[in-house]
Amino acid sequence: MLRYALVGITLCLSVNHSIAQEANDEGLKFFEQKIRPVLTQHCYSCHSKDAQTNKKLKAELFLDTAKGMLKGGETGPTFIKGQSAKSLIMKALKYDGLDMPPTGKLPANVIADFAKWIDMGAPDPRQGELAAKPKREINLAEGKQWWSFQPLKEIAPPTGAASNSIDRFIQQASAEKKLQLSKPATKEQLLRRAYYDLIGLPPTPEQIDAFAKDTSAGAFEKVVDELLASPRYGEKWARHWLDVARYAESGGYEFDGFRPSAYHYRDWVIRALNEDMPYNQFVKLQLAGDKLHPDDFQAASAAGFLVAGPYPGQITAKTVERIRYDQIDDMLMTVGGSMLGLTLGCVRCHEHKYDPLLHKDYYALAASLAKTVHGTRVLDPDPVATKTKLDKHQQDREPLVTALRKFANDELPKRFDAWQKAELPKQPEATRWQILEPVAVDAERSYLKWLPGGIVAHDGTINPGTMKQRGRGAKKATPANDEYQITFQTHQKNLSSFRLDCFTDKALPQRGPGVNADGGFQLTELKITAKPLDANSKEPMQELKLKAVFAAFEDKDQPLANAVDGKPATAWVVKTTAKKDNAAIFELDKPLAGFAGGTELQITLQFRELGIGRLRVAMCTEPNPTTWAGDFVPQNVYEIRGILAANNNKVPDPLRENLARWFAPFDEATNKFVQAVRSHDITTPRPPLKEVYTTIDGGQDVFYLRRGEVDNKGEKATPGYLQVLTRGELPKAAEQKDPRIALADWMTDLEQGAGPLLARVMANRLWQNHFGNGIVRTSNDFGFQGERPSHPELLEWLAKELTKNGWKLKPLHKQIMLSATYQQSHESNAENSKIDPENRNLWHYQPRRLDAELIRDALLAVGGNLDTKNMYGPSATNDNSQQRSIYLRVKRSELIPLMSTFDAPEPTQSIGERISTTVPTQALVMLNSPLVRQQAEKLAKRIAPSPETPMKDAIQAAYRIAFARVPSDNEQDEMQKFMESQRKIMGGANPANNDKAFIEFCHTLLCLNEFVYID
Amino acid sequence: MFEVPFENLGLPVRRRFLQEAGLGFGSMALASMMQDEAKAAPSPVDPLALKLPHFPAKVKSIIWLFMTGAPSQVDTWDYKPELQKRDGQALAGSDSKTGFFSTSGKCLKSPFAWKQHGQSGSWVPEIFPHLSQHVDKMCFLHSMYLKQNNHAPASIELMCGTNRPGLPSMGAWLNYGLGSMNQDLPSFVVLHDTRPRGDDQIWSAGFLPKSYQALALDARRKESIDNLFRDQKHTDAQQVAQLDLMRKLNQYHASSRPTQSDLSARINSYELAYRMQMAAPEALDINKETQTTQKLYGLDKPECATFARQCLVARRMVERGVRFVQIFAGKGVGGDGSVNDVPWDCHSDVDTNHRSCALHTDQPAAALLTDLAARGLLDSTLVIWGGEFGRTSDSQGAKGRDHNPNGFTIWLAGAGVKGGFHFGATDDFGYKAVQNKVHVNDLHATLLHLMGLDHTKLTYRFNGRDYRLTDVAGEVVKDILI
User: Fold this and answer.
1) Which of A422, A584, A628, A644 has the fewest CB atoms within 10 Å, i.e. the most exposed one?
2) How many Å lie between the alpha carbon of B335 and the closest alpha carbon of chain A?
3) In the prediction, which pLDDT does B291 show?
4) Which of A95, A146, A253 to substitute to test the interface with B, most B CBs within 10 Å?
């Protein structure tokens, strides 16, 4: 090495040419003898200009020129001159991660030759120019001209006779193609179509009758309004969104860890749709709900969108980094597909091959999502209800307080007088430790309860911590610190010291006294403030100066003194000394005189993580109680004496209620009134906290990955946007409050951000789910590879309408459904079929099969046992449930077979269009499954013929329930004949066979194509 | 509107239907199926209609004996004398990043006695007394490797080409590319015991239409198929009458919707379902096999009866034109601390674990080769033996081996590949593939090639991208082909 370095210097100085020349010749000779043959034999087939010509070039790497080698390929320069140890090619030759050549590792001496050559400075005579790489340069300005990336335009509907604007767009296009639009559908057909479209259920015979009778012009509009207002609407349309959101309740991969609280996201989507939440809001909450409304349960549920994707169940240090980038990629692919109709997954490793999406932009979005980790939080799902309950509880307290006050005024004085004379003198004189009785307790993350004897106990509920999924279903609490606040009152003077007792208990982890898993606690700070009890007093609040005097058990390194040093970073750590009772004594630097009219003491205990399981506070008025010794007595008698001493041995009126508290243990009547208030206070309602699977804090910076490889990191990525969708100067995402909020703002920004595309994609989805196909049939791809819109101006108009309607979806549904286009018959026309066989111009209504969920819902509905009362909640584990199918469990490794059979998609990637297949296993379900059989039996029972209902009517009722129409005479005949033949096969007509034949008839109806098709 | 008079549809549907249903399968010889294939034209309506391959196929069916949990290459088919010699010594080139947990860095020799077998002189350990008789049929790929080092991701990579869930597996791609040779049976069948780690994701149809999905049969439920049998109270005659009526009414319904081709597909699907009701139980009925055959597979031995039944069912399926059968080996005899869903996962003790796993699978697998050969089916069927990765050559604990995706052996036997042939190699210790490395994508490219498909042309457009089983890589391993 040294020698070549010297050569370098000499060369630079141009002093001794001959030495340099000699070295160079030697190097070139070495190259020709040892290096070139190897390159030619083993490398050129994939890494040369010839390889490029033969389309065999790999990794954009040219090893056939010196320049090519220096520049390197996708993974970077091949070598660093003079530094073989740091050179990529050496790793490859040594099969250390790259493994080249692939046909087999080269002999050790050849590999050594390469090292030597690189260390020589890689002399190389091959002076050829770099082969020109036909690399595509993305032109953003040009990209912005793509139809779906442009700003939203105001489009005036074409002129025409139709009153509905949609019809004018459609009719203009059909007229150009000489297509004849179909006649309107019958009322029966239209009603059935509207029901399945909006709520996913068939109309009942009563609903059919009502619509038939309503001959008013607005009859159908009324139906649409009713259906849009039905809670069933959200249950039907949420399913479409859950498809694009790749929603599932488990992690997939190893063990497929179940996420028991992931269903809140599904419920949130149903609610949002039913409430007609504006779509921009809907999107924002899913991208940044947790950041926009930090402790809001619904917002946390919405953010479940980001983390609904698969996630491995077994992770080691070796895989964790790759998995992190995979998770971000999953989020980006889903955001891209569902909201923007863009294939962002394609940009992870390189520039998009077709769309103007930069590799750099991918990492800008990735950086926006970097601090997004999945986990669970415990929150109050309904804070309004909780507040109402609390208000009510507070109201209910009033009469109790009034009663106490009345008692204190009317009865207490004479009872107290008698006691004061007869009993008070007998009470003990000052003792060392007076147990303080709390008047209020509160904690940040816990619920505390009062026990007799002044004990404050943790009740086991932790609130509202954040849990993080770790490995195989294991959860670990992320440290969130607790803080207790306990309030006491006293009328005594010259308080000198306080004592904190910490008790063990069977109920605590490791017997306590701490609530942390090891039974310990870490008290970072203990503070006491004193203020006058008398609300009219002008004396200021004081913070007491405390000195740690004594702890029963303490570690030398983490002593009690840390709890009163004013530094939150240090703590009295009870860890090695856990599992036994502990106590601490604190002395005031000067005794607290106490306020006239009484003193309120507030003790604040700040912990690292969780606090103490059971504690008690006592005080002392002696000057120097630096000892454990001494009795414990409740403060009551001394408070009474304190009041009397300060008021000439009388109880002043304003203190009567206070007196009642101290007097209660000595007088049953007083106790009754005092306890009534206290018992009420103890039952203060608590928020019904629920766990929700959502995003939690955490995550790390994101770096550019060359070729998407985690071992190949570039510089740190900063949050940003897709440039092709951005117009004008936006504030930098990184400079905003939170990158995800910035992303959500940009996503919904109609002027400068992705808003126009967002609106187009959603308007198209609505259209798609009403007509079977979108105006853009590739509803998840609005890029260059996606299909162009069949009616570009109509789509533009719909998108604009959506935004004009305040992003509300329901008005758009209505506009679509009130169009003559939507209300056409399904009937076919040979001429039209020839011109437009795919019905892209919507010259008739396209019949289509029901989705898996709707088939099951319809079966339960016709059987008369669909449960529509129980909305929401944990998913049903199998299809025996009677709830709608949207509530069935979606566990990635065990999808419900009935759903998969009828094409419910794999919930692993955003799915914009379901594929409707026809396979014999579907027929087997209809013919033989217990589900269909049972529903047939139930339907038969609902409408069975009887002396009052002739067979003809029963058949008609069945047709109306299953198909929303009456049967033709032919069908009546066929069915009668069929039942006759069934009876014959079973051995002739008798009541039992008649019933069975009727069941066969009902079963047959459910198997007919008409049952699973809407048209 | 096309008004088709109702009565005109009252064809003698029933008679025709019964005739078709009565055809049966016994008569359906392979030769005729191949003929059918030649005649087949792609149909836009029926996704499972036979499709012409890109070029003539050498293989009609594949049976993949998936050795769940990943067997150790150096204790099965990749004999390494150097490893045997250096037991306990430092493993040269050992890399702490290889395993899933952690390994000692010291060589662990194979605990088994090895011998050469067959004309090819292939080395086989003592645990395969039956399979060792077939080495001259086997084409060993000693240089397999992939990227994932844990069971579910690796199994997904091995079957779907990349590790991300949600992609279609090879069986689904074959179904999509070739269609069905026997519509009375599903074309892609998975047989499993305890479900392997990764479950459905390993045999997923991913984003492909569900027409191509696997039928998974659980050994614990004796391979029963859901909804295959009609209600017990419901007789065949009743169902036939019901189907007759349905056909008539469905045709009437379809006649006024002539543009809706899926309606006629749905009408046919009922008839297919009816036939499947008979065909599937028949295909699964191993009682139809002779005592000799049953014994050959080892059905009389409790230690391998389950795998024997699965192998026998696989043969019966292939005989009936099923394209791709995958058997996930379950658990034979326990006692080594391994887990049921990954039986070959010998983290704690290779010796006990591999002996018991071999005992569970050796005889049935060998019988399958014998039986297929005897019936002439090995000329059109390819049997694959292998797991989701290999094991470390250094020890985990005292006697176990950790995961190792950098080098492992899979063998192929039967149609289209050279027998008694060894391709590729790991280093002297069996630790890493170093010569003629074969990635999963290369294996898939080769298997598709054998089935008559060009892996670069078998694509499916999803979310704006043309996907392939082989992602963006894969080269056909030509050297192993006949």
Assistant:
1) A422
2) 22
3) 96
4) A253
Residue of chain B whose alpha carbon sits nearest to that of A984 = B238
A312 close contact with B: CB closer than 8 A:
yes
Q: What is the pLDDT of residues B221-243, one digit of tens each?
A: 888 888 998 888 788 999 999 99
Give yes or no for A54 touching B (CB within 8 A).
Answer: no
Residues of A in contact with B198 (CB under 8 A): 253-254, 893
Say how far apart CA B311 and CA A132 lie, in whole Å.
Answer: 55
pLDDT of residue A128: 77
CB within 8 Å: B241 and A900: no
Distance CA A455, CA A436 (A): 9
Residue whose C-alpha is closest to residue A144's, from A754, A778, A1012 = A754
Is the pTM higher than 0.95? The answer reads no
Distance of CA A67 to the CA centre of its chain: 50
pLDDT number for residue B16: 34
Q: How many whole angstroms separate alpha carbon A109 and alpha carbon B235?
A: 79
All structural domains of chain A = 2-119 (no CATH), 146-156+163-380+690-912 (no CATH), 432-630 (2.60.120), 926-1014 (no CATH)
CB contact under 8 A, B245 and A1013: no
- Is A1000 an interface residue toward B (CB < 8 Å)? yes
CB atoms within 10 A of CB A487: 15
Q: Which two three-digit tokens encode residue A719?
A: 């949050």
Q: What angle do CA B11, B13, B18 make, to 5 degrees?
A: 155
Contact B201 A252 (CB under 8 A): yes
DSSP conformational letter for A298: H
Alpha carbon of B211: minimum distance to chain A alpha carbons (Å): 6
Q: Give the tens place of pLDDT for each residue, B358-409.
A: 999 999 999 999 999 999 999 999 999 999 999 999 999 999 999 999 999 9
Residue with tokens 């601090």: A371
Min Cα separation B255/chain A (Å)? 10
User: Is any Cβ of chain A less than 8 angstroms from the Cβ of B459?
Assistant: no
Q: Give the single-character DSSP code of A34.
A: I
- Residue A146 near chain B (CB below 8 Å): no
Q: Which residues of B174-201 are buried (b: 16+ CB within 10 A; e: fewer)?
A: bbbbbbbbbbbbbbbbbbbbbbbbbbbb
What type of residue sits at position B362? D
The C-alpha atoms of residue A308 and residue A910 are separated, in whole angstroms, by 11
Which of A105, A310, A780 is opposite residue B165, by nearest beta carbon? A310
User: Rg of the Cα trace of chain A?
Assistant: 39
List chain A residues with pLDDT less than 50: 1-16, 469-475, 478-479
The whole-number pLDDT of residue A472 equals 41
User: Distance between the two ends of chain A, CA-based, in angstroms?
Assistant: 82
**pLDDT level of residue B442 (50, 70, 90 thresholds):** very high
What is the average per-residue pLDDT within B187-197? 89
Interface of A with B in 62-101 (CB under 8 A): 95, 99
Selected residue of B6, B403, B463, B477 to mutate for chain A interface (largest A Cβ count, 10 A): B463
pLDDT reported for residue A733: 60
Q: List chain A residues with CB under 8 Å of B259.
A: 828, 833, 837, 839, 846
CATH of B47-225+278-480, one of 3.40.720.10, 3.90.1150.10, 3.30.420.10, 4.10.520.10: 3.40.720.10
Residues of B in contact with A916 (CB under 8 A): 262
Half-sphere exposure of residue B5: CA atoms within 13 angstroms, side-chain side? 4
Three-state DSSP at A460 gives: strand
The backbone torsions φ and ψ at residue B309, rounded to the nearest 5 degrees and listed phi first, read -65, -40
Host H or E run for residue A466: strand A466-470
Distance from CA of B470 to the nearest CA of A (A): 16
